[in-house]
Amino acid sequence: MRLIRRRNKARRVYRSRSQWITGIVGLVVYGLIAVGTIAHTRHSTENILLQGIVLLFIIFICGKLICLTVVSRDEDLHVVNMFSTFDLGWNQIDRFEVGRSGILPGVCRIYMKDGEIRSGIGISEAGYYVTPGGPAGRMVEELNKELATHREPRETPVP
Fold first, then answer.
1. What is the mean pLDDT of the chain?
2. 33-49: per-residue pLDDT in tens?
3. Is 90 exceeded by the pLDDT of residue 112?
4. CA-CA-CA-CA torsion for 97, 103, 105, 106, nearest 10 degrees?
5. 142 vs 38: CA distance, rounded Å
6. Alpha carbon distance 13, 139 (integer Å)
7. What would the pLDDT profile of 122-157 be if each residue is shown by its tens digit?
8. What is the pLDDT of residue 86?
């Protein structure tokens, strides 16, 4: 997590380190495999094309792993997932928790006031089991604290 200031607006970027590292390593490894495969393959054109398509898909997925984030801004929460990106107003959010989302065992679950549950998979545990007080839990705790500050009534200056 890091604090970034752009255009006089504070924002915090929450991202699990394990996903970012996996994405970088995957890009490097599969990129090298793609170049080596295409350069040294003596197979038919269809076989080379199929290998290239599969490797490009894997490289795309690894690239998306690098981009998974939950960005906390003054005005809203910006979530970048694998196949979707969305903004949520602070007044729409009830709470954050770490829990199962589909096949993912420990990701940030965003509970909305209307009962809907959204996921922010940029915040996740590295392994299959969710550890209490793990990295995802700490980030979710910080998001809940930030949510509480947005719920507090703003003081208006008295003239």
1. 80
2. 777 766 766 667 777 77
3. yes
4. -40
5. 46
6. 10
7. 888 876 666 667 888 889 999 999 999 887 665 555
8. 94
* C-alpha to C-alpha distance for 53 and 32, rounded to whole angstroms: 15
CA torsion 36-39-41-43 (nearest 10°) is 140
Rounded distance between C-alpha atoms, residue 136 and residue 29, angstroms: 27
Task: List C-alpha distances in Å: 64 to 38, 41, 57, 69, 89.
Answer: 23, 28, 11, 10, 24
DSSP assignment letter at 131: P
Structure tokens at 153: 């009534």
Which residue carries 């394990």 as its tokens?
Answer: 18
**What pLDDT is attached to residue 5?**
42
Beta strands per DSSP E along the chain: 2-6, 9-14, 69-73, 76-80, 85-89, 93-101, 104-112, 117-124
Could you tell me how far CA 1 lies from the centroid of its own chain? Answer: 11
Which residue in the block uniquely carries the two structure tokens 């898909």? 57
Measure the CA–CA gap between 13 and 106, rounded to whole angstroms: 19
- Give me the pLDDT at residue 87, please: 94
